[in-house]
Amino acid sequence: MTVKELYNEIGGNYNNALSRLMKDRLIEKFALKFLQDGTFNKLSESVQKEDWTEAFLDAHTLKGVAMNLAFDKLGESASALTDALRPENVGNMNAADIKELFGTVASDYSRTVGGINKYQSEL
To answer: For 3-121, CATH number?
Structure first.
């Protein structure tokens, strides 16, 4: 699997990543480093506890990392969750709606991590 194929598999934007990082080797380095990022686990715990303030910070961080790496699918779902958790919006949401948005993030995260793990196993 090539880096470009990885991005296709995970719903990322390879050309955007390449324009930022300039080389496949750097894209690979940061994609593999993403596997060590604990933000998603923190987000999961925050959502489970219904700690919306902490969940907002975690979702915002995950969105930023995903968008910087051009993991577009994950970035888009994390962005939707971040927007719902903004202090001015969260009062208009119920826990079930927030958890549904988190479910989409979890699915996209799983797809992203699965693709990266598959890529790593083929190195």
So the answer is: 1.20.120.160
Tell me the pLDDT tens digit for each residue of 40-86: 999 999 999 999 999 999 999 999 999 999 999 999 999 999 999 99
List Cβ neighbours of 58 (8 Å cut-off, separation of 6 or more). Answer: 39, 42, 43, 46
Taking a C-beta distance cutoff of 8 angstroms, is the pair 42, 58 a contact? yes
- With tokens 């593999």, the residue in question is 32
Q: Can you give the pTM of this predicted structure?
A: 0.96
The tokens for 114 are: 């699965």
- HEC letters along 57-110: HHHHHHHHHHHHCCCHHHHHHHHHHHHHHCHHHHCCCCHHHHHHHHHHHHHHHH
